[in-house]
Amino acid sequence: MSYLTLSITLIFVVIPLLLSKTLNLGLERDTIVATLRSIVQLLAVGYVLKFVFDSESLVYIFLMVALMIVAATHNAQKKGAAIQGITSKVAVTLISVEVLTQGILLGFNITPATAQYIIPISGMVIGNSMVLSILFLNRFTSEIESHQDETELILSLGGTPKQAIHTQLINSIKASMIPTIESQKTVGLVQLPGMMSGQIIAGADPIQAVQFQLLIMFLLLTTAAVTSVMLGFLSYPTLFNRRMQLMKKDLI
Known about the structure:
mainly alpha; globular
């Protein structure tokens, strides 16, 4: 695709702008900012990736993955700002998920140990983990806020913090995992995943594209489970003080 062809695709930006203006939605500025940022960021990343792929340096690969984790951590921790040490908890979760998934992929020689595979797959894993962290923290803080009386009642009856928070924790883990599970139920019927579609458009054999897409889907399922469970069990202890009392905070 040439830059001229790419510029023609801006028609797809003009349409929502016109609709927003006509219906007085007030989304024109946000749409323009989002478009400009996506253009600049993706083109910049494209040139950086070209340099990294050409160099095949492990140092550059590590720096790219580290940058992804830092950016994802910064974005996700905002939803759990009231939870003590949430930034480090999110960072540990993202790093653990990345190490686990890449360890399996490279350890079993499922994918080559090259930048061409490590960086894109890491981007999908870290990005998905970030979204799941946001979903979990958003639901968890909401559950805690709406069930404070129930939690304090269990504590007053001699229950442990884990027992007092168990229902809210499990509900939050399940809620954050459901979108990933449900999307996999209809894949291929309702939609063709982006990676698979991109490979087919690029001329790859459809069966090979399907096989690689299945790998990514299974990978993201593990990402969903590990992220939600790990972040949940790292977060809940900090909601209680040494006397096993729920620390009341505005969590929403």
